[in-house]
Design brief:
The complex is a heterodimer of chains A (209) and B (160).
Chain A: H1 2-5, H2 15-29, E1 36-41, E2 58-63, E3 69-71, E4 74-75, H3 81-89, E5 120-125, H4 131-157, H5 161-169, H6 175-191, E6 196-198, H7 201-208
Parallel strand pairs in A: 2-5, 5-6
Antiparallel strand pairs in A: 2-3, 3-4
Chain B: H1 2-5, H2 20-34, E1 50-51, E2 55-56, E3 63-69, H3 73-79, E4 84-87, E5 90-92, H4 97-107, E6 117-122, H5 128-140, E7 145-152
Parallel strand pairs in B: 1-7, 3-6, 6-7
Antiparallel strand pairs in B: 3-4, 4-5
The chains are: A alpha/beta (209), B alpha/beta (160).
């Protein structure tokens, strides 16, 4: 009956260590779900687009109630939207010096946008269009901008624009590095500013052209 | 070996409870980290659309949420099947959005009031008319930063 006689106490000294080990394991592996989404800025209410816009600098995109996509009054598949937007933004049709876009690789068609700063994408949607399609269109346009921005960032700084942004927002990046990055990021953003407007612009530009 | 054989015979030694606080704290910390505070229960269907060009919506204290979608099954008898807006815990009309934003903004600390983002959590089957009305309201109260909250994924899944 050796077993009943010998009942050694459970050694509990290392229990705390095990507990902390587990705690740290869970701390590291669990991620709290964060929301993701597309950030946009609405136009301010008191300045309703009093800029003069030339018709050639506007790319009109509209969604009808059956979720069909129209670009400049022609039906377009949503797969082709990105390519169309890139062609429009990157056109660089201006020949005058101050508007000349020396980094644009587009067709330089004088009937399309002068340069990316001037180019405006006007997005309008029918009241019955579905939100899913609208987000998809916004997403495609964002993709077009990202492609162009990445291209320029690669050319100027040898890395993707998205990588630069990620590095800028990362917590571990040092302050000095951040200030340097910020200048570069702003430069790229200025080259291809995100000009997506909704509906209100139409009246103004028609008057202009 | 005399040390080991000098045990009392027969009675069970008590299991040490010295580590119990550790275990409890561990559990506590675990639940503290994984719990997200649920501030309002959803009254509307909320299948968000997919998008790939997404940015993270960080700093939850700077976000005001607006939910839009069809009322869920149990509310459909009362509110119908047309998409509705949900603010906090109740259904609301479009013209209440402005005052809601102002009220929420007033609740936030002074230094955050200018940097608030409005997250639009909209069901992908909702119609754009309602969204346009909401955006008009947001512009009226100068809440210009919006985030169309989505799931991360291929946008082509939105079609079905």
């Amino acid at each position: 009956m050796r077993r009943t006689r010998e009942n050694p106490e459970v050694h509990a000294g290392s229990m705390a260590d095990i507990a902390f080990l587990l705690l740290i394991f869970f701390l590291v592996t669990t991620t709290i779900q964060t929301d993701v989404g597309l950030d946009r800025k609405l136009p301010s209410d008191d300045v309703i687009n009093h800029i003069d816009v030339n018709e050639r600098n506007v790319l009109r995109i509209s969604l009808n109630k059956n979720d069909e996509l129209f670009v400049e009054d022609r039906v377009l598949g949503i797969d082709d939207l990105k390519q169309q937007a890139v062609a429009f933004l990157d056109n660089g049709g201006a020949i005058e010096n101050q508007l000349l876009c020396d980094y644009c690789k587009g067709a330089h068609n004088p009937k399309s946008s002068d340069n990316p700063q001037k180019a405006i994408i006007s997005l309008s949607s029918d009241r019955d269009a579905s939100y899913g399609t609208y987000v998809q269109v916004q997403d495609r346009l964002a993709l077009a901008y990202r492609e162009l921005r990445n291209r320029e960032a690669q050319r100027l700084f040898g890395q993707d624009f998205t990588a630069m942004e990620e590095k800028f927002y990362a917590a571990e990046t040092k302050e000095v590095e951040k200030t340097a990055l910020k200048v570069n990021i702003e430069r790229i953003r200025e080259m291809f500013p995100l000009n997506i407007t909704e509906a209100e612009l139409n009246v103004q530009s028609q008057k202009q052209s | 070996m005399a040390k080991f054989t000098k045990k009392k015979e027969g009675d069970l030694p008590a299991v040490s409870t010295a580590s119990l606080p550790d275990i409890v704290f561990m559990l506590l910390f675990f639940f503290m980290t994984v719990t997200t505070m649920k501030d309002s229960s959803l009254l509307v269907e909320n299948t968000l659309p997919n998008a790939s060009e997404v940015k993270k919506l960080e700093k939850k204290d700077r976000v005001i949420y607006i939910y839009v979608g069809k009322p869920t099954q149990e509310y459909q008898k009362v509110f119908g099947t047309e998409p509705k807006i949900q603010l906090n815990d109740k259904f609301a009309n479009v013209d209440e959005v402005g005052s809601f934003i102002l009220a929420e903004r007033a609740k936030k600390p002074q230094e955050l009031q200018n940097v608030l983002t409005t997250a639009l959590k909209v069901d992908k089957n909702a119609n754009m008319g309602l969204i346009t009305d909401i955006k008009l309201q947001l512009r009226k109260v100068n809440a210009l930063k919006v985030n169309y909250t989505t799931y991360e994924g291929d946008a082509f899944n939105n079609l079905q």
